[in-house]
Amino acid sequence: MNNLPDIEFSEELIRRFDKLGPRYTSYPTADKFHAGFTEASYIEYLAQRNNPANSNPPLSIYVHLPFCESLCYFCGCNKIVTKDRVRTTEYLRYLAKEMALVARHIGPDRRTAQLHFGGGTPTFLTPDELGELMAMLRGHFNFLPDAELGIEIDPRTVNDDTMAMLAGLGFNRTSFGVQDFDPAVQLSVNRIQPYEMVEKAVSASRKSGFESINADLIYGLPKQSRESFNRTLDRVIELAPERIALYNYAHLPSRFKAQRLIVEAELPSAEERLQIFLMSVHRLLDAGYIYIGLDHFAKPDDELNLARLDKTLHRNFQGYTTRADCDLIGFGVSAIGKVGHSYSQSVRTLKAYYEHLDIDRLPVEKGYSLTPDDVLRRQVIMELMCSGPVNFAAINQAHGIDFKHYFSDELALLKQYEEAGLIVVDEHSISVTPKGRMFVRASGMVFDKHLAQSTAKFSKLI
Ligand code: SF4
Predict the structure, then answer these.
(1) For residues 241 and 313, what is the distance between their CA atoms, to the nearest angstrom?
(2) Closest by alpha carbon to 79, among 117, 31, 121?
(3) Is the CB of 68 under 6 A from ligand 1?
(4) If DSSP codes are grouped into helix, strand and coil, which group holds residue 102?
(5) For ligand 1, is residue 120 a contact (CB within 6 Å)?
(6) Fewest CB within 10 A of the end CB: N or C in the chain?
(7) Atom of ligand 1 nearest to the CA of 120
(8) Residue-wise pLDDT tens digits, 158-191
């Protein structure tokens, strides 16, 4: 099935509107988090949610498992590369402590709708350790029967038994780090995983009953070319994952130490990168995938696409999701949380994490309390990121404003996007056109009040 009419990609528009900017997994963006937001602030927000008079949203839980066996040179994650398996025992002990401390502040009526294990490499943990971790979580939190349980998989670390074991623990969604199948590219980023290895892991997931498989691809890696990436796409399309994320490699060696091992001369030029992107989009659309937004594609019958059609798509720290407005509770080093009108983030190093928990303190390093203006802008930006529509009457009612008056400057700035056919602004709403779906980030930036003072280094979509 060719779904080209649903979305339009124009090289000219990309050159004009693909700007450096945030990906808006939060608003304000994480560079606004500050140390004035403390453990006490976090506990206060958790406590506010325990009022039975409020209808509190379900929980989404994220667990950060930072250990990896070897270093991928493109990596920008908070990870610890080690061969020492014993380190996980200590980490699990502290995770147990953190969970027990947080659970004290969460009312018994709160249900958990979503769980995600990210890293690092979650399967660095042994099957017994993963089982222990799930038992801890189920001991403290009340999971809904249809909860979405997802785990990131490095195909080099799993076999048929691992995927069956994970399914047995209740995981029903998995995301594979594929990146690129070309051997020369894999060698240049120090991540060797032949197609046969990934194919085996994907079919083991299917046999074990995983409902949804995602494959992460990265373009812009060293030694990549249109020809080489085209071959990678052949193989990915053969694997037929339900979802595909096509990430742009952001080379920021001053920020990510691992990336200093990448030979810059081997990186594709900006022009080649654009052509790889355009070719990839066309190939994925021709193969029947639907463009969801930013760098995400899904099969037509995947929940993400159904939510997009129903206008019930949401965005959180894990990207696009079908689960509305959960409170996000993060566990482990550098994990981010979102509770009510607040964000919080834990300390980044194991040392600091253990030190906090040793004295029974939650490891909160920083965070942010949203003002009413932030809450309003967050809603507008997230609705744009999910391709709208932004309905003025609904926003006026929820926030007690007159949208057109409150955002008169922003509406004037949106004119250029309207003239380029990326959005339509009428009496009642802002909607995103098929042409504009790729540039939602640029229209969202118009409503970002903090952007002008931001010191963060943002990337482009392409
Ligand atoms: S990309 Fe994943 S497996 Fe590789 S170093 Fe980073 S976190 Fe570890």
Answers:
(1) 20
(2) 121
(3) yes
(4) helix
(5) yes
(6) N
(7) 7
(8) 998 999 999 999 999 999 999 999 999 999 999 9
Q: Which residue owns the Cα nearest ligand 1 atom 6?
A: 75
Which atom of ligand 1 is closest in space to residue 152's alpha carbon? 2
Across-strand partners of 337?
A: 344
Mutate to test the pocket of ligand 1, among 67, 70, 74, 75 (most ligand atoms within 8 A of CB): 75
The Cα–Cα gap between 431 and 286 comes to 26
250 vs 94, more confident:
94
6 neighbors 434 (Cβ within 8 angstroms): yes
Please give the domain boundaries of the chain with CATH numbers for all domains.
1-28+371-451 (1.10.10.920), 30-328 (3.80.30.20)
Q: Is residue 140 within 8 Å of residue 97, measured between CB atoms?
A: no
Number of Cα atoms under 13 Å in the Cβ half of residue 61: 29
Atom of ligand 1 nearest to the CA of 191: 4
Nearest ligand 1 atom to alpha carbon 76: 6
- What angle is formed at CA 307 by the lines to CA 306 and CA 308, rounded to 5 degrees? 90
Q: 232 pLDDT exceeds 50?
A: yes
The 3-class SS string of 285-345 reads HHCCCEEEECCEEECCCCHHHHHHHHCCCEEECCEEECCCCCEEEEECCCCEEEECCEEEE
| Averaged confidence pLDDT in the chain | 92
User: How far does the centroid of ligand 1 lie from the alpha carbon of residue 137, in Å?
Assistant: 24
pLDDT of residue 8: 66
Rounded CA gap, 245 and 174, in Å? 13
CA 125, 131, 136, 138 torsion-angle sign: positive
Q: What are phi and psi of 98, to 5 degrees?
A: -60, -45
Q: Which two tokens stand for residue 22?
A: 């945030």
Q: What is the CA(27)–ligand 1 centre distance, in A?
A: 26
Give yes or no for residue 75 CB within 6 A of ligand 1: yes
Question: Is the pLDDT assigned to residue 4 strictly greater than 80?
Answer: no
Type of residue at 315: R
Compute, in angstroms, the gap from residue 71 CA to the centroid of ligand 1.
6
Residue 166 — φ and ψ, nearest 5°?
A: -65, -40
Ligand 1 pocket check for 220: Cβ under 6 Å? no
Report CA(176)–ligand 1 centroid distance (Å). Answer: 12
Is the minimum distance from the CB of 154 to ligand 1 under 6 angstroms? yes
Q: Model confidence over 108-133: pLDDT tens digits? A: 888 999 999 999 999 999 999 999 99
